[in-house]
């Protein structure tokens, strides 16, 4: 059972544009929603995360929007740069120390 | 500070051979997770430990897979015998008690021929 669904699978954005990746979850017990960035040949790196008590979190050019009633959250990358080209994974966890359930990933390409 | 360390980075072996993957978590972290990444199934949890004790091994595919954590600074994932369908990238991640964040190692790319 896929508990976290991610879309789109791939995304092409022009430099300076906004990249938007969406995720939807099923399990209302999830309590933590991180986004990971992965470059080829590397491990996933924690990018930004949110708890369900807030609707938005911003760190630099990266913003998470969270809609608890819709059970959806999204990653917005403002002013996208070629260096942002990577695969992005959303994930969810039920409590601190619990496993992460990952979405299927989005391959982002930012064209110069 | 050093991050999560995994070895080897690449492993190529023949079907039927035993494979051992190693992980050193970040010092002071209490949780250790083993994930597997494939094109077909994405990133999925195999097993995780808290204070060296296995908590959830429901993701371990079958009896051919086993994992141990003899101390706070070392864990192994063993596959015996290995099969071509075990080919994947295996990641180790660690986290601190009371925190949600998990930090991943660089992974071991396993190829079973």
Question: What can you see in these coordinates?
Answer:
The complex is a heterodimer of chains A (about 110) and B (about 110). With about 110 residues, chain A is mainly beta. Chain A has no helices and eleven strands. The model of chain A has no long low-confidence stretch (mean pLDDT about 95). Chain B contains no helices and eleven strands. The N and C termini of chain B lie far apart (about 35 Å). Classes of the chains: A mainly beta (about 110), B mainly beta (about 110).
List keywords for this structure.
heterodimer; A: 112 residues; six-stranded mixed sheet; five-stranded antiparallel sheet; B: 113 residues; mainly beta; four-stranded antiparallel sheet; 11 strands; globular
Topology:
The complex is a heterodimer of chains A (112) and B (113).
Chain A: E1 4-7, E2 10-14, E3 19-25, E4 33-38, E5 45-50, E6 56-59, E7 62-67, E8 72-77, E9 86-92, E10 101-102, E11 106-111
Parallel strand pairs in A: 2-11
Antiparallel strand pairs in A: 1-3, 3-8, 4-5, 4-9, 6-7, 7-8, 9-10, 9-11
Chain B: E1 5-7, E2 10-13, E3 19-24, E4 31-38, E5 42-50, E6 53-56, E7 65-71, E8 74-79, E9 88-95, E10 103-104, E11 108-112
Parallel strand pairs in B: 2-11
Antiparallel strand pairs in B: 1-3, 3-8, 4-5, 4-9, 5-6, 7-8, 9-10, 9-11
Sum this structure up briefly.
Chain A is an all-beta fold and 112 residues long. Chain A has no helices and 11 strands.
Shape of chain A: globular
Which two chains share the most extensive interface?
Answer: A-B, 23 and 27 residues
The general outline of chain B is globular
Q: What is the string of SSEs of chain B from the N terminus onward?
A: EEEEEEEEEEE
If helices are DSSP runs of H or I spanning 4 or more residues, what is the number of helices of chain A?
Answer: 0
**Average pLDDT metric of chain B:** 96
Major β-sheet annotation of chain B: 7 strands, mixed
Question: Radius of gyration of chain A, Cα only, in angstroms?
Answer: 13 Å
Q: What are the low-pLDDT stretches of chain B, counting only 5+ consecutive residues below 50?
A: none
Number of strands of chain B: 11
**Proportion of strand residues of chain B:** over 45%
Rg of chain B to the nearest angstrom? 13 Å
Which stretches of chain A of 5+ consecutive residues score pLDDT under 50?
none
Which structural class is indicated by helix and strand composition of chain B? mainly beta
- The N- and C-terminal alpha carbons of chain A lie at a distance of 38 Å
Biggest beta sheet attributes of chain A = 6 strands, mixed
Q: What percent of residues of chain A adopt helix (DSSP H or I)? A: under 10%
